[in-house]
Amino acid sequence: MTYENQDPDPGEVSGLDLMEASVPGTPAGRMPEAGPPYHPPRGWGKGPLVAVPVIVALVAAFSLVYALLV
Q1: CA-CA 20 to 30 A from 56: which of 16, 29, 38, 40?
Q2: 3-class DSSP state of 65
Q3: Which of left, alpha, beta for 43 (phi over 0: left; psi -120 to 50: alpha)?
Q4: In angstroms, rounded to a whole number, what is the distance separating the alpha carbons of residues 33 and 29?
Q5: Sequential DSSP letters for 31-50
Q6: What's the pLDDT at 18?
Q7: pLDDT tens digits for 17-70?
């Protein structure tokens, strides 16, 4: 099986200026498919704020029980 490159040679493409190619009606330098910017919420979520104290309490309880039994 032979491989043939399907991409055209950029030097042979006519009628297309790659530096100014854009969708009509789109300002230069803007991506037409991009939506509004995503701003993630700041700070910690509720999960870590609950999980960290629970884990600390479990470790403290285990240490206390271990110290009393040994």
Answers
A1: 40
A2: helix
A3: left
A4: 12
A5: -TT--SPP-PPPS--HHHHH
A6: 52
A7: 555 555 555 555 555 566 777 887 888 788 999 999 999 999 999 999 999 998
Confirm whether pTM is higher than 0.85.
no
Structure token pair of residue 54: 């629970």
CA atoms within 13 A on the CB side of 49: 4
In DSSP notation, 8-27 reads PPGGG--S--TTS---TTPP
Q: Name residue, tokens 């609950």.
A: 50
Confidence of residue 3 (pLDDT cuts 50, 70, 90): confident
